[in-house]
Amino acid sequence: TKLPKCLTTLDLTSLGVGSCGGTGMYVVSGMVAREIAGPGVIFSFIIAGLVSLLSGMCYAEFGVRVPKTSGSAYTYSYVTIGEFTAFFIGWNLVLEYLIGTASGASAISSMMDSLSNQTIRSWMLEHVGRLPSIAGHDDPNSYPDIIALFIVLAMTVIVAAGVRNSVMFNNVLNVVNILVWLFIIIAGLIYADPTNWSKDGGFFPNGWSGVLRGAATCFYAYIGFDIIATTGDECKQPHKSIPRAILFSLAVCMTCYISVSAVLTLVLPYSQINEESPLLDMFNYVGFYQAKYVISVGALASLTVSLLGSLFPMPRVLYTMASDGLIFRFLSHVMKYTETPAVATVISGAIASILALAVSLRDLIEMMSIGTLLAYTLVCLSVLLLRYQPVVLADSRTNGLPILPPVEEDEIDPDEVETMETATEAFDERDNTNLISKDKTGIPQAMERPTEETGKRAIQRICLLSFYLVMFNIFLVFGANHLINKAWWALLLLAFFIIILIILIILVCQQPQNPTRLAYMAPCLPFLPISAIWFNTYLMLKLSPVTWIRFIIWCFIGLFIYFGYGVWNSDLEKSDQKFEETTYQEGMNIDYES
To answer: Which residue segments constitute the domains of the chain, with CATH numbers given?
Structure first.
């Protein structure tokens, strides 16, 4: 790789926290508390955080398996599932980062407009005009957001200036965020009134159903930790830092969200929360008007670092895809002075700035999340598939070598080596017995290792299980009202789905897992990735039809690029052709010698 190795675990954790932290504290907490869950928003954030942790632990395992990567879920899918699926995932990650960057800039512009008492909006509407909506509805308050355009361009310059400068800027803003968070908690607790948790329907005004519906919304506040997985080429010890940073950042975000939600609902009744500016309104409610300046600084810093969290990984995904030949090669150019993928950074920043200028914030928000959720799902599926394969898969980037994290010489313990050799001998001695037992029962023994046959069988069963989970979620999403009304056919169908689900999970559990141990491995397999796939696909199906239509259009554009360019220029295709030519030449030499 041409990218410099300069990032530490603390840097990666800061990137993850900054990418996730903007909307959760300043937007989502008030919205969910007011409209959906009341004070139960605390449990909504806990549930959403635990669900995010499921995907996070799978990401962490891949951070150990494939540490040297700048492509996040794209590279993980490239290694495990294949080139086409990897392109599909990478292409949609680019979409999410584009929209995340544009919406972040629009949100900052909107907050600046609020601080100016809508002076900016009034001037733009009067002198420039309205912006027609692309979602089929006309928003009279939307306008060409020139400020958002310049915000994206300014952030593009910062990102292109070098990873060290970008991370330092991110760290400074995160320090501001932490100080403002401490101010919110300490000042808020001074005005806390515990009786607010018993007013207007109590702690759970809409019951646990409201808490669960709120969790679906709160989940999006945790999206963004995958930025950590795009920094492998620039990290000093990726096999250690990536999994730690993912788990640390999710823990920090969960702590911030839960504490802010608790203070918010303690200071004022949830029914009086202002969705647009909940924390500002909270201090105005108790007469602490000077707090708005501190909150405004914190919100601007948080939204800025969240914007950086979308803009930073986008050129790195493009860089990795271009390096593999799936998109245009010039996007993989690295500037010598800044040691960054400057071409990919400038082009992606320019496109995001145009989106920020020409598309309203409402339409941008509606287009988010689906690609990220799909990437999370594919990573969890990849972890599940890898565990049941007989060998550690190799990548074309590693010249056929197995993908394992590097081990320092001083980390090797002779006693551990001897123990591993003894364990290997024990496996070998029991292999024949296990094969006989498996032939009789069809169920692998505890010490059996996977073979090509069991690996293929596991792939078939896992793919069938994944398809079934999607069908189950379709039933849950579109048949929810019938289940609530206890329609007999819906309850019968639910029981059928549950029984088949249990059978499929048992069939997957019957297959032997690869005994190779890594520095970190996702626990409770196969249940953890299966649960993550289930929840992620459920949330995808809850997105609006307009989002799905846009998603399909974007996918068709990607398919046109892949089959028109990527198929003919990919490194994998060239390596296959070279292998065939070498094999043919060797065969000709053998025939000539004979």
So the answer is: 9-387 (1.20.1740.10), 420-543 (no CATH)
b/e code 435-469 from CB counts within 10 Å (16+ = b): eeebeeeeebeeebbbbeebbebbbebbeebbebb
The C-alpha atoms of residue 89 and residue 378 are separated, in whole angstroms, by 8
Reduce the DSSP state of residue 171 to 3 states and report it.
Answer: helix
Q: Are 335 and 62 in contact (CB under 8 A)?
A: no
288 torsion bin: left (phi>0), alpha (psi -120 to 50), beta (else): beta
The string of DSSP codes covering 32-99 is HIIIIIGGGHHHHHHHHHHHHHHHHHHHHHHHHHS-S-SSTHHHHHHHHT-HHHHHHHHHHHHHHHHH
Cα–Cα dist 134/591, whole Å: 65
Residue 46 makes CB contacts below 8 A (sequence gap 6+) with 254, 258
pLDDT (mean) for 258-280: 86
Instruction: Give the residue from 366, 54, 53, 47 showing the smallest Cα distance to 216.
Output: 47
Q: Which amino acid is at 456?
A: K
Give the Cα separation of 301 and 312 in Å (integer): 16
User: Coil, strand, or helix at residue 402?
Assistant: strand
Kindly compute the dihedral angle of the four CA atoms of residues 275, 280, 285, 291, in this order, to the nearest 10 degrees.
170
Task: State the DSSP code for 27.
Answer: I
> What is the Cα–Cα distance from 226 to 92, expressed in whole angstroms?
14
For residue 400, the surrounding DSSP H or E stretch is none
**By three-state DSSP, how is residue 445 classified?**
coil
Which residues partner with 335 through β-bridges?
340
Q: Is 7 helix (H, G, I), strand (E, B) or coil?
A: strand
- Mean pLDDT, residues 388-407 taken together: 50
Q: How many CB atoms lie within 10 A of CB 530?
A: 23
Higher pLDDT, 226 or 569: 569
Whether the Cβ atoms of residue 536 and residue 226 lie closer than 8 Å to each other: no
DSSP structure class, residue 523? S
With H, G, I as helix, E, B as strand and everything else as coil, classify residue 143: coil
HEC states along 316-340?
A: HHHHHHHHCCCCCHHHHCCECCCCE
Q: Rounded to an integer, what distance in angstroms lies between the CA atom of residue 516 and that of residue 513?
A: 9
Considering only 72-81, 367-376, 405-414, which range has the smallest mean pLDDT?
405-414
Per residue in 447-462, pLDDT (tens digit) is 478 888 888 899 999 9
- Identify whether the C-beta of residue 88 lies closer than 8 Å to the C-beta of residue 558: yes
